[in-house]
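Example 9 (inverse folding). The structure is encoded as follows.
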C-alpha cells in the first residue's frame, strides 16, 4: 500500500483489508464463545481425590472416630419439633404462610440459644488463632462457580437473583474464599485462618420426607464457618486440625457423634477429601450430619486466582508464584445444633437443660422450661 500502485490495485487491497478485518472480528467472536463453552465444561470437572478416600457411594464411607455413647432415657423421648411446640420455641406454621415450607420462626429461649451458639462458636474458634469475619450474603454468580458450586440448573442448591448476575450464598465458604480473589499473597502471611458468621440460603432441591423434618433441613439458617488458605504442603495437616477443632467443640457440648471419612461419590466437586461429623439425634432416632471439614487443595484457588509468592530470602524456595490450598469446616450450623441440644438434653418433665459451656453466652440460663420457672444464677 505504501508503494506506487495503480488506483484499481490499491482499491483491491483496501477491500481485501476490510475483508480480513471483518473475518478477524468473526473469528474473535467464535473464540470468545468457544472459550466460554470450554470454561463451562471445565468447571464441571471435580477435584482429584485423596488416595485414602473410600471408593463408592455414601454407604462406603468409613468411621474414623466415635465419641461417647448415646444417652439412655428412662422416659419416652420427643423430637425437637414436639419439644419446640411444648416449650413455645418455634413457629413453622406462621413461617409457611409468610415464606413457604422449610422456613421457621425461632421464639423465646430458642432465639437466645441461636445467639449463644454463634457467640460461643466464634469465641472458641478465635482462641485457636482464627480471624473473625461477617460476610456479604449476596455474591456474583461467577464467584459461586469458581468456588465449585453450580448456580444454575434444575437441581441447584443456589438461589439466583432474577435479572442480575448475583446469588444468595449457601455457605460463608464462598465469600470468604473470594476475599483474596485475584491476589498474590506473601508466603509469610500464610496460613490465613478465618472464622465467619453468615446466614445461608439453600433451595434443598429434591429434599423431602421425614428425614428433613423440622429444623433439620431448611432454606435459611445461621452458620459459623472456618476457612484456611495455606501452602500446598500444609493442607493435610490443617485438615486434621480442622476436624480436631470440630470434635473438641462438639465434645464440649456433651454430644455423642461419629467422625466419617466420606466416600468418593459423597464428595462435592471442590473436595479432595472430606470428613463429616454425624451426631446422634434421639428424637429423630438416627445420626444426622452436623458439620463437615473439606480439603479443596488448589481447586478453588486456581479458579479464584489466589496465589502466593515463595519467600525470596530462602534461596531454595525462589521460584514462580504458586496457588494456595483452601480448606473449610463447619464450626456451628445453628438449626442442627438446636436439634441435637433439645433432643439430647430433654428431661422427663419436658424441660431442656442448657450445657454448661453455653450458659455464659445465654445469660447463665440453665433450663428451658415453663416461662415462669427459669433458673438464673
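The amino acid assigned to each position is listed next.
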Amino acid at each position: 500500500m505504501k508503494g506506487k500502485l495503480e488506483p484499481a490495485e490499491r482499491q483491491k487491497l483496501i477491500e481485501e483489508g476490510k475483508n480480513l478485518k471483518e473475518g478477524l472480528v468473526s473469528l474473535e467472536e467464535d473464540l470468545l464463545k468457544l472459550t466460554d463453552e470450554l470454561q463451562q465444561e471445565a468447571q464441571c470437572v471435580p477435584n482429584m481425590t485423596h488416595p485414602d478416600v473410600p471408593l463408592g457411594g455414601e454407604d462406603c464411607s468409613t468411621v474414623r472416630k466415635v465419641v461417647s455413647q448415646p444417652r439412655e432415657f428412662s422416659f419416652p423421648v420427643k423430637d425437637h419439633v414436639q419439644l419446640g411446640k411444648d416449650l413455645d420455641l418455634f413457629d413453622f406454621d406462621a413461617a409457611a404462610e409468610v415464606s413457604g415450607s422449610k422456613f421457621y420462626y425461632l421464639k423465646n429461649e430458642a432465639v437466645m440459644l441461636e445467639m449463644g451458639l454463634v457467640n460461643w462458636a466464634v469465641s472458641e474458634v478465635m482462641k485457636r488463632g482464627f480471624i473473625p469475619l461477617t460476610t456479604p450474603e449476596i455474591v456474583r454468580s461467577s464467584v459461586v462457580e469458581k468456588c465449585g458450586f453450580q448456580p444454575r440448573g434444575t437441581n441447584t442448591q443456589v438461589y439466583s437473583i432474577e435479572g442480575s448476575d448475583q446469588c444468595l450464598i449457601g455457605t460463608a465458604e464462598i465469600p470468604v474464599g473470594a476475599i483474596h480473589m485475584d491476589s498474590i499473597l506473601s508466603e509469610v502471611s500464610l496460613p490465613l485462618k478465618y472464622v465467619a458468621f453468615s446466614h445461608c440460603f439453600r433451595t434443598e432441591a429434591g429434599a423431602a420426607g421425614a428425614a428433613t423434618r423440622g429444623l433439620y433441613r431448611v432454606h435459611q439458617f445461621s452458620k459459623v464457618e472456618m476457612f484456611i488458605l495455606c501452602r500446598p504442603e500444609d493442607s493435610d495437616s490443617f485438615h486434621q486440625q480442622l476436624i480436631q477443632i470440630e470434635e473438641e467443640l462438639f465434645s464440649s457440648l456433651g454430644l455423642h457423634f461419629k467422625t466419617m471419612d466420606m466416600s468418593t461419590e459423597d464428595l462435592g466437586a471442590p473436595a479432595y477429601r472430606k470428613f463429616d461429623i454425624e451426631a446422634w439425634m434421639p428424637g429423630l432416632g438416627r445420626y444426622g450430619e452436623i458439620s463437615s471439614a473439606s480439603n479443596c487443595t488448589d481447586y478453588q484457588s486456581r479458579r479464584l486466582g489466589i496465589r502466593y509468592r515463595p519467600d525470596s530470602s530462602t534461596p531454595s524456595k525462589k521460584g514462580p508464584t504458586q496457588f494456595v490450598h483452601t480448606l473449610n469446616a463447619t464450626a456451628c450450623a445453628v438449626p442442627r445444633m438446636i436439634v441435637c441440644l433439645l433432643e439430647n438434653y430433654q428431661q422427663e418433665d419436658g424441660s431442656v437443660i442448657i450445657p454448661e459451656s453455653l450458659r455464659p453466652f445465654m445469660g447463665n440460663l440453665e433450663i428451658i422450661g415453663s416461662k415462669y420457672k427459669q433458673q438464673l444464677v
